[in-house]
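task queued by scheduler; priority normal; single chain, no ligands, no partner chains; default sampling; output format set to structure tokens
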Amino acid sequence: MAKSKKSKAKVNPKLAGFEIQIDSLGEIKSSLEIDKINKFLDKEVEDIKLIDQKKSKPKKEG
């Protein structure tokens, strides 16, 4: 079989230039700092676990 060409994934413009690799020792190498990635994820992605907690939280009757 012929090797398939690796195409680059669609990336949010705010993450332009972001690349991530895992070296032979299993260490993650990234072109962006982890703190910047976490800030982006906090702004752009809703945490499923937090949404479930909000739904199951009983309301207090006063």
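post-processing summary
- The mean pLDDT is 80.
- Helices lie at 34-44, 48-56.
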